[in-house]
Amino acid sequence: xxxxxxxxxxxxxxxxxxxxxxxxxxxxxxxxxxxxxxxxxxxxxxxxxxxxxxxxxxxxxxxxxxxxxxxxxxxxxxxxxxxxxxxxxxxxxxxxxxxxxxxxxxxxxxxxxxxxxxxxxxxxxxxxxxxxxxxxxxxxxxxxxxxxxxxxxxxxxxxxxxxxxxxxxxxxxxxxxxxxxxxxxxxxxxxxxxxxxxxxxxxxxxxxxxxxxxxxxxxxxxxxxxxxxxxxxxxxxxxxxxxxxxxxxxxxxxxxxxxxxxxxxxxxxxxxxxxxxxxxxxxxxxxxxxxxxxxxxxxxxxxxxxxxxxxxxxxxxxxxxxxxxxxxxxxxxxxxxxxxxxxxxxxxxxxxxxxxxxxxxxxxxxxxxxxxxxxxxxxxxxxxxxxxxxxxxxxxxxxxxxxxxxxxxxxxxxxxxxxxxxxxxxxxxxxxxxxxxxxxxxxxxxxxxxxxxxxxxxxxxxxxxxxxxxxxxxxxxxxxxxxxxxxxxxxxxxxxxxxxxxxxxxxxxxxxxxxxxxxxxxxxxxxxxxxxxxxxxxxxxxxxxxxxxxxxxxxxxxxxxxxxxxxxxxxxxxxxxxxxxxxxxxxxxxxxxxxxxxxxxxxxxxxxxxxxxxxxxxxxxxxxxxxxxxxxxxxxxxx
Length: 639
Known about the structure:
- By secondary structure, the protein is an alpha/beta fold.
- The protein has 22 helices and 28 strands.
- It is globular.
């Protein structure tokens, strides 16, 4: 018997001794980081509300209780009883029964009403029918991505259970080494923006944090081939942790499965969905531009199948010697600061991913309240000494001024926007400004993936700022469903109609003007001096957006690739700072200043050379801590 099986037997005996004698435990197993307890008496388990909490505390494991299949009522009988328990106004749209696990997935427009106060309705369901309820939200805006991911995971349910069981056994294996060290190896995004990737290693475990591409620099990928990463084989990776879905952090994760990785990806649920959306678009753009993508769509599906979604604040075992906790990063939907607790109090490391420290219209600001952090790996995109962004209210005033000036001369406002995050932020500003009469109510056309990304935001309102969440949850005033928003789904024909029509606002991907529908809008509107192109997001060096921003007027367009395929840009060009999803220099300093206790060491990454060095120097002088501006392929040993 393996050490894992022996420990499971011990825990089964421990649980059987703890529960009342009239409750029978039939099986105890691992599924990913969770301990799953099967019982013939789920109704009695549900009646004892504190029992699961007590067991979880005693065993120091996250516990899920499921009914033994033999104890279940029929789905037909259970359906009737469940619908009788859940209030009608919850808007149940689907019940999906899985007899192999004893779970019923309840899809509802208002999941909170299905859950009940402190889970009371869920407990009542289990007490009455025995099935274990799991609740998901019916997307207020129909989302092909959410539907496809849910259907795919349903189809792959059996294989996914096998994957999770294997992951669980790997997490809870016996520790083999007596050594103690913690190392971080930089595989990308050091003294540059993009291709974020790091290895966190101990004598026992190897974890990859992020695996992205570099905008505007085809072929520059993380240094995955080094021995610390995949050089020793992808099977030597224990886990992948994804901070958020932007492609400079997530684009190359499917490549790991092509190389033979078969382990978990830990991230939040909305990041999983957005990751799939952006990666499939990444493949689509490569094909349209005649480039050979590094992997195919099957690898994207593998990544989704291996994803273990975590909620903010959940402390989760991901290896015998590492616990992971994700915290809100305030950057985009589902973005997370990843906090690693290594060993039994040995060392703590936090990777910021990309952060926004202050509240925005869309998100609450980044969390920096950790019990301990000895080393912080901190993004520095706007870490330069002069990188102070405009106050958000001033930014909004400037944007409204640009819009009013353009609409007064019957022009159109073209906004290159990232599908995820900036677009929804701008949508909220426009919706309020039109509602308050601060700008004229004109059509706002959303092109590219913006509408689909917005639908995903509406599916997960609990990840949005409190005020937006409440509007979607309680007031039936979903701001993303305002009448003026129009999804461009008619392709080139509809774009031509918009270009020939009256004043309007167009939000289009790509945000850095690197391909996508924005190129078509440039052809339609670029020669119109009455219209305005307005940048609201970061433009990486080397991208066309950056060149237009710095004054380029001859713009390459079309797919011909010849010298003659250019457009003379006559439209006005404006930049409105303050809408970035990144903290500016002050925000980054405040993030570190208000940490208590502060970290002993900070690695400044994800910024150009001057930005990381400026921020590193400032943190050293201001807070008397050890700081570094690492290069790619450096290894830092702690302990």
